[in-house]
Design brief:
Elements lengths: L17 E2 L14 E13 L2 E12 L7 E2 L3 E4 L2 E4 L3 H7 L1 E3 L4 E4 H14 L3 H12 L9 H19 L16 H15 L10 E7 L10 E2 L12 E2 L3 E6 L4 E7 L6 H11 L8 E4 L2 H10 L8 E3 L20 H6 L8 H12 L33 H4 L1
Parallel strand pairs: 1-3, 2-8, 9-14, 14-15
Antiparallel strand pairs: 2-3, 3-4, 5-6, 7-8, 9-12, 10-11, 12-13
Helix pairs in contact: 2-4, 3-4
Length: about 400
């Protein structure tokens, strides 16, 4: 009887890579050893396309716990809690948003920076990935976009919350907790945003930036009838920033769920005034509207100079208390501080002449005009029709 022919080694499918947790013991006790569970077929998305892999799950050996561990998370009360540090994710080489779905570390690095610099949507990345690597994602399905957005959010959260030792509180696929967000906000304003020498900060420029328009989870909802899919799209009003005009460093930032108002400016100033003892001047396009509030509050007495920027000052009257054109005290204090838009107009004109104005967005939403004009704004007189033309 002839011997059966064997399959050539070259024809065998390549062995799949196996991903597992870096932990050896459970969080419940140092004596609870993790034992191998199931081998699960999974998909790993990377810069070279989709790869089929195996995820090795582990379970706690304690009968009172029996928690299941994935490569970078642990199941607890139907939630996936992060178990990895940034270094662990680098060593594993991937971050998993579920037992069967993961993204490589290079993929997450690349797309996190791409989202920051270009604000590329998850649906655009899904479309590009699908047509580049011929992945089987339906045109109407947003499953890949959701997994991608969840992975990017988890990646950034682990990187940013690890210095605060809050990375273990991250729920994969969920928003970070309000307590963690508040701690992160405080950490940035105390440790990251301030310059090395705080005594150099003597004036600030305040303004809202609607172009920086990333919507948050607590953003307001559009009024009216919801779309067919039932999800009401949130909208916001950008971010309010306090900038040091000498070095253009952003010292404070706050999300605007409502249009720019005195309350947002007041909260932003109270947050950073204790950090900068030499700060005594503020430049803002509507400083005269906030001046009565500032004079009535003792916590803002540190700021002695309230001025309008050079561009908006031309639209205010001579009696405006914050107009640097007519108030020599303000002009002397802010001498040498660039508070005018003319410099940026110059840069724009140079870019247009050199045909390098591709940075402009051709689709910009037109903002609504203010319903209540400033008390010191110049009033426009309506032109009367000549009497001869009325006959």
């Amino acid at each position: 009887m002839p011997a059966p022919t064997k399959r050539p080694a070259a024809a065998l499918p390549p062995a799949r890579a196996v991903y597992k947790t870096h932990l050896t013991r459970c969080f419940c006790s140092s004596s609870s050893v993790l034992k191998p569970g199931h081998e699960i077929n999974a998909i790993l998305y990377g810069m070279n396309g989709m790869e089929r892999i195996i995820v090795q799950s582990f379970r706690c050996s304690s009968f009172g716990c029996r928690k299941t561990y994935g490569p970078n998370f642990v199941w607890d009360l139907s939630h996936k809690y992060n178990t990895a540090t940034p270094k662990n994710i680098e060593e594993i080489g991937a971050l998993f948003v579920g037992t069967k779905i993961g993204f490589t570390a290079d993929y997450l690095k690349y797309h996190s920076f791409l989202e920051f610099r270009a604000c590329v949507s998850a649906m655009a990345i899904k479309h590009t990935y699908q047509h580049t690597f011929n992945t089987a994602h339906g045109e109407q399905s947003n499953w890949f976009a959701k997994m991608h957005a969840s992975a990017i959010m988890s990646w950034i959260a682990v990187q940013e919350l690890y210095p605060l030792q809050l990375h273990l509180s991250i729920k994969i696929g969920d928003e970070i907790t309000p307590q963690a967000l508040q701690a992160y906000h405080k950490h940035l304003h105390l440790k990251v945003f301030p310059p090395k020498c705080k005594t150099t900060v003597k004036e600030l420029v305040a303004d809202g930036h609607q172009k920086v328009h990333i919507k948050c989870a607590n953003s307001r909802k559009h009024a009216g009838k919801p779309p067919k899919h039932g999800r009401i799209k949130p909208f916001g009003h950008g971010w309010f920033m306090l900038v040091h005009p000498r070095d253009l460093r952003i010292l404070a930032v706050r999300s605007m769920s409502v249009p720019e108002n005195n309350e947002i400016l007041y909260d932003s100033l109270l947050e950073i005034l204790p950090l900068y003892k030499h700060l005594d001047g503020l430049i803002m396009d509507r400083a005269c509207g906030f001046l009565p509030t500032a004079r009535a509050d003792k916590s803002l007495k540190q700021i002695k100079y309230w001025s309008i920027d050079g561009f908006h000052a031309k639209g205010h009257t001579k009696t405006c208390p914050c107009n640097p054109i007519y108030k020599k005290r303000l002009a002397t204090r802010f001498k040498g501080v660039n508070s005018s838009v003319l410099y940026f107009v110059k840069l724009h004109n140079c870019a247009v002449e050199q045909k390098q104005s591709t940075y402009l967005n051709r689709y910009v939403r037109s903002g609504k005009k203010a319903k209540r004009p400033y008390s010191c704004g110049k009033k426009t007189v309506a032109k009367k029709r000549p009497a001869a033309a009325m006959s």
